[in-house]
Structure formats: structure tokens, C-alpha cells
Amino acid sequence: MPRHLFLVLLAFVHVVAGAQTAPDPTLDEVLARLDQNRIAYYQSVPNFFCNEHVVSEMDMGDTRGFMRTVTDSVFRLRRTVVKRVANFEESRSVKAINGRALSGEEQKIQGPSILSGVFGSGLEAVSTPSEACFNYKLKTHRSHGELERIEVDFADLPKEERGPDCPQFEQVSGKATIDPVSMEVIRVERHIREHQLFPGVLGPWTWSAEYGQVLLGDKLFWMPVKIRSKARQDTSAEMSSSGIARREGSATIVGNGHTTWSFVATYTDFHRTQVSAHIVAPMTKEATPEAKPDPPKP
Q1: Distance (Å, whole) CA 163 – CA 132
Q2: Alpha helices in 227-280, H assignment, sequence order
Q3: What pairs with residue 103 in β-bridges?
């Protein structure tokens, strides 16, 4: 083998070996980076609107069969800051249902059941403050020595170990998938074994959000571009086991008692909400009297 080729190959081996031995990030390091990215989003994301396309389905599992609704809306996110805390208000205007455009009055109709709050708080479960609420397990995945993706599994801590500001204990479990280069969450999934889907209707519920880069103005943001949800009634579920509340009386039966609800919401064509303004003529400033010279002294 020629000497120069041998040196090139040897250098390549050292590069690969170095990549393979690079240490994986720790859980504390991952959570710290996620905190930085999430706070930066809270501080800088502008008000925006986009297209929302929702395919909602209900399978009643009996002779009444299957229902499917397609809803197109304009989705809006409004950000306000109160005492240095960012608050997010989600709203939507329904444009069409099953391809039929709505009149002005019909646009007040609420769309199908969808998941609210993901754009503002969907990443809160995987954060340093939420260590008081969840147990985390870090997983790293490599391909040919390169760190390919990072995963953080999370689950509710036992009720007696949870902090006072934690959300309601529901035996939540889930997983966040993280891009190792940007340290941005690219997918988050949550599962609840026993959730109150509607009054008197209980069952397992799983939802997930896929995140993508969205250009608003001249800045890129990572935000949900697809949200999926699936829930199923379970008449054997007991609220007492999850600690929510003990169910009184008989459960509401939908279909055969194992009805499934699902939807897929897709978000496209993002735009900043432009604030209209007009020029106001400056107020006329009152003339200041000119100072009179002092009279000559005798």
C-alpha cells in the first residue's frame, strides 16, 4: 500500500474512532438545552395564523357504524406577556366542513374535538421544572458512530412524591424525541391510561405532536405541524385507580361501550399576524412665549 494512502486511511480511522468515543449528553444537559430553546420560543414567537386541516373520525363499533368529518379552519395563536409570563391564546375560524364552505353565521360553529394548548405548552412535560412531576429516562441512539437522535421517556411520579404545582396525577407516560444538532424536540407523545374523555366517558387516550421548522418573518421556529389523537371508551375503567375522582352511578355508553375517537390535524402556510397602523398627525405644540429682554437699568 502506498504510504500516502495509508496515512489518509489512518487519519480516517482516527476520525471515526473519535466520533464513536464522544460522550453522550447527560439528562441534566439535555433538559438544560430544552429549557433554553423553550424559553427562547416563549420570548420571541410572534402572533401568527395558519391553515388547519382536521380529519376527525368516530367509530361506534355497532350498527350505527362510522362517522368521518373533514374541517378546514384558520388557526391563530396570540401571545401576551403578563408579569414576565408568556400566555398563549389559541383560536380558530372554521371555513369549511366536508368541503362545504360556511356562511358568516355558520362560521361560529365549533369545529370537531381537537387538542388545545400544544402550541403554548406542549413541551412543558420535558423540562427541568417538571422534574418535580415526572420520572425521566434518557436514551441515545447512534448510527455509524454519529449521534442520530435522543429520546427522553417520562412518566408520572407517584402521587406522594409529586410537587405541589404538578398537573393532576393520571398515570401519564410518554416520550420526547430530540434532534441532537439543534436540541429541538421533533416529536412528543403522551399516553393516559384512564382519562375522562367526556362526562361519564372514560378510557385510554394517546396524543402526539410532530414538530417542524416554520419561518415567520426572518426567523425560524420549531412548532407543531401535525397533531394526532386517539381515545377509546372503556366501560371497565375505574376513576378511583387513577386518583381523579370516584365515578358515581353508571357510565355513559356510546355505541357498544368501546367507541373510538381519533383525529389528525395538519398545520401549513404559517404567517405572522400583521398589526395594522396609521400615522397620527403630531399634536400642535403650544408656542412658548419669547422671553422679553429686561428693561435697561437707569
Answers
A1: 5
A2: 239-242
A3: none
